[in-house]
Design brief:
225 residues, mainly alpha, 2 domains, two-stranded antiparallel sheet, 2 strands, elongated
Amino acid sequence: MNRQNGLKLGLGLVFLAVFNAVFFIAGGTDHPKSVWLAYAFIHIAYLLLVATSFLVKENSQKVVMGMPLYTVSTIYFALSFVINLIFVFAKPETLTACLIINIILTGFYVASMLTLVMANDATQAAVDRREKELMYVNEASGRLKAMQESAGDEALARKIERVYDLVRNSQVKSSQGVHNQEMNVLRMLDELEYLVESKDPAAEETLREVEKAARERNRMLQYGK
């Protein structure tokens, strides 16, 4: 546990210490079951709030209905604290009302958390898929741009620029069917980089092959092959 987490835990224990001190000093230990149930749910709600502060960073984008996860936990704790404090003072003889209200409140809280997990998983999967699709265009165009800038021959640089524009303006969305074609383009770029660096005349022929493969990749996407 690092220093920051230790301070968080210490700060969290302050509330429990103060609450329990007031609870037992002012009320003693002779209470009906409903009070002890309310007492237990206050602790549960607070411990969940503290746990959330450890699990979720302040800048987290995880939200439920537009609210950060920590805010959801804070609202749950605030409602639980107020509602159960009423039961502590009211001291009802039966625990039915206290139990039903807390079950409903906790149920809403758990449902919010499950909604968050599912929504976050779906969002992360979409982000991962988007990054994978961007990989070909970003990597290929970046490498071509670097070759264009390092090419000593102006005519070759213009030809590289043409292929760069082709790749840079290519459809970003990819598919499993064109994956091999994309890998083929990237492999040929390895050879092209070497040829451009060594100023080998064969670079122009390899560049034409790269352009041909890049156009074929775009054609396959266009016609769904």
